[in-house]
Known about the structure:
Distance between the termini: 61 Å
Structural class: alpha/beta
CATH class: Alpha Beta
Amino acid sequence: MAKGKSGTGQLRILVTNDDGIHAPGLKVLEKIARKLSKDVWVVAPEEEQSGSAHSLSLANPLRVRKMNAKRYAVRGTPSDCVLMAVRHIMKEDEPDLVLSGVNRGQNIADDVTYSGTIAAAMEGTQLGIPSIALSQAFGFSGQSKVKWATAEHFAPDILKKLIAAGWPEEILININFPDVVPGSVTGIEVTRQGKRDQSLVRVEERIDARNNPYYWLGFERILSNPPQGTDLRAIYEGRISITPLHMDLTHQRTSKALSAALGSLEGPVKRRKP
């Protein structure tokens, strides 16, 4: 990874999230980023955008509020924030690295398709910038308090090692910290994406003051029995999960099988002009 395109000799780091500009996890990530570089920029959503996935605001204009020289709030999605930062706010000296998080709650298994935190890292990757998403799991220990100290303690060293090692283009890195205090972390594991038990997804119906129903979507925080080697298993057993995610969603084996199955079909016959 090239350092200091800005001429400072420092990594130029863009920090963003999906929990919003005032989220505690964003403050934690700023601290982490400043242990890697002095050139840290923050461009984050004005309001919480959890579950926004990799969406762009195409039907509404984006509003940008400058809070100080290197801190901006965008009325838009996490993907909007990264795009605005790279193509507008920081266009003269683009970031060397995008860090997204630290998310309040894990982004593992099927979560990655919903997550605005992951989406911000996707957008950075699409723009050709190495990108990492960070999330702090909570709720598994039976406590509602988020153990931000775990991410803050381990992330700087992990990030330094990842940056030194590098990774291919079209890949983003997804890091999840377990719901335990730093001293209880049982290890670090490079994992594959797991599969959540969809029976744990719930729709909760409530009644408003006018006797009309409304609904909340959520997940039961019940431990399943995922396979070894998955991000789910690592988090359940107190390990830090590091998952490389590929932007190319093509399933090559199925692609070859379909090509073989469809290979004998002929397209429309082209008639020769008289």
